[in-house]
Amino acid sequence: MAAVLVFLAPGFEEIETATIVDVLRRCGLKVSVASLFPNAIEGAHGMKFVPDIFIGETTVKDFDAVICPGGSPGYENLRKNRAVLAMVKEAFDSGKVVAAICAGPAVLSDAGILRNKNCTIYPGMENELEKGGGNPQKDFVVEDGNIITSQGPATALLFALKVAEHLADKKIVERVRKKTLTNLVSK
User: What's the CA gap between 160 and 109, in Å, rounded?
Assistant: First the structure.
């Protein structure tokens, strides 16, 4: 079973984080939510999530993918954290799936992994991608090699399923796509 690490920082986007974790677990993946702090973390809209692990208790070697949710100031808190940037870079260099949604791709840019990569971000933040050498696209979900990016809360299901396509059994992903009605919206 593939393992996924989802970073959690104060001010995270609740819709994105909950959707990512839920969809990937439905697809049979082992998902660990790693927080910058060892206690419950409050999201951008007041919801509190309890992390599975503290970021200092894990390494990228234990995972097949790392994911940065967006949210403000969540993405700012992730991008300021040296451990997060190092783990994102290590995952990319190891050929693991590296994914980010909403403002989260700014973290990938800061980690130096977007050079000449097609990517997307929350509309209006394209300059964050360009700073890291990325090629901004307007699509809801953009995949370039082992990097997957997406635009925001409304695209979270599509994003999570795209990540799952890389890590889970295709039949299971298709079943989850149908059960969540995502097959009715887009594919």
Answer: 20
Residues annotated catalytic, as ranges: 102
Number of Cβ atoms within 10 Å of the Cβ of 115: 10
- Dihedral, CA of residue 135, residue 7, residue 141 and residue 19, to nearest 10: -160
Model pTM above 0.90: yes
What domains appear along the chain, each with residue ranges and CATH number?
3-185 (3.40.50.880)
* Cα angle 73-77-79, degrees, rounded to a multiple of 5: 115
Q: Cα 182 to the chain's mean position, in Å? A: 18
Count other Cβ atoms within 10 Å, centred on residue 137. Answer: 18
Q: What is the pLDDT along the chain (187 residues), one digit of tens a residue?
A: 999 999 999 999 999 999 999 999 999 999 999 999 889 999 999 999 999 999 999 999 999 999 999 999 999 999 999 999 999 999 999 999 999 999 999 999 999 999 999 999 999 999 999 999 999 999 999 999 999 999 999 999 999 999 999 999 999 999 999 999 998 886 5
